[in-house]
Design a protein that fits this description.
It is built from ten helices and ten strands. It has 283 residues and is of the alpha/beta class. It folds into two domains: 148 residues, Rhodanese-like domain (Oxidized Rhodanese, domain 1); 119 residues, Oxidized Rhodanese, domain 1. It has a five-stranded parallel sheet. α7 links the parallel β7 and β8. The relative contact order is 0.16.
Length: 283
């Protein structure tokens, strides 16, 4: 299942060879920005990898907050994922057909609830399709299974933790948004959210981590992207973005490089920039 330092990834060739394994569960974790005008669930019904189930980031989420797709409770996660036919001991392979690499968010969510046997399909559905591999349509039914979920707090940061970190700088904050949004020169897509970034953070736009075919860059190139942006691979890191999706892509890249102390700020800029009392830097 693993490939050395890149043990968070599997190739399309690996998945094709193991698609029928009893313990392999394939998950379509596609999610699109509202402005994209795409329906991920409908696209899944039109074409998906055989045996895949659809993980709805907006439904398997905390419904008691106005913030988008925040982590649900462990009980809700276990119930929803178990209903998809995924249980303890399963090997989960997540892919997407999304410009924002949402499979990384699903990968991080499984790990945040203690399910470590989870990987991302390198290159996603686009690479699978480009290689002429099989696709099926329809909405599959699943036999429910038991999944144990316990929140691993070390992988998640909330508003209070990030606010405290602005003072201590104990962890470096790495922002996955575009350079313009980070600087505050581009408008934010969500109304009422200020422009700029968390004080002291550095900017690594998530798309810089990927090659033209959608695969994650080789480790030396990944390291170069992070270090050139001012990220110290040896220091604790908190990743952030607009709403916690592309922040997970940075967490995936750092994980591939062997960085063991990486957490995601779940509320991300929607929460931080949407408040009036949180400090903001621009430029």
């Amino acid at each position: 299942m693993s490939d050395g330092a890149r043990d968070a990834l599997v190739s399309t060739q690996w998945l094709a060879a193991h698609l029928a394994d009893d313990d392999v569960r394939v998950v379509d974790g596609s999610w699109h920005l509202p402005a994209a005008g795409r329906d991920a669930r409908a696209e899944f019904a039109q074409a998906h990898i055989p045996g895949a189930v659809f993980f709805d980031l907006d439904a398997i989420a905390d419904s008691e907050t106005s913030l988008p797709h925040m982590l649900p409770s462990p009980e809700k996660f276990a119930r929803a994922v178990g209903a998809l036919g995924i249980g303890d001991g399963d090997r989960v392979v997540v892919y997407d057909a999304s410009a924002v690499r949402s499979a990384a968010r699903v990968w991080w969510t499984f790990r945040a609830f203690g399910h470590d046997d989870v990987v991302v399909l390198d290159g996603g559905l686009a690479k699978w399709r480009a290689e002429g591999r099989p696709l099926v349509s329809g909405t599959p039914s699943s036999i429910g299974r038991r999944l144990t979920a316990r929140l691993r707090g070390s992988l998640v940061r909330d508003l209070d933790a990030v606010r405290a970190n602005v003072g201590t700088r104990a962890a470096q904050v790495v922002d996955a948004r575009s350079a313009g949004r980070f600087a505050g020169t581009e408008p934010e897509p969500r109304p009422g959210v200020r422009g700029g970034h968390i004080p002291g953070s550095v900017n690594v736009p998530f798309d810089r981590l990927y090659a033209a075919d959608g695969t994650l860059l080789p480790a030396p190139s990944l390291r170069d992207v992070f270090t050139k942006a001012g990220v110290d691979i040896g220091r604790p890191a908190i990743t952030t973005c607009g709403s916690g999706v592309t922040a997970a892509a940075l967490a995936l890249g750092l994980h591939v490089l062997g960085h063991a102390d990486v957490s995601v700020y779940d509320g991300s800029w929607t929460e931080w920039g949407g408040r009036h009392e949180t400090p903001v830097e621009r430029g």
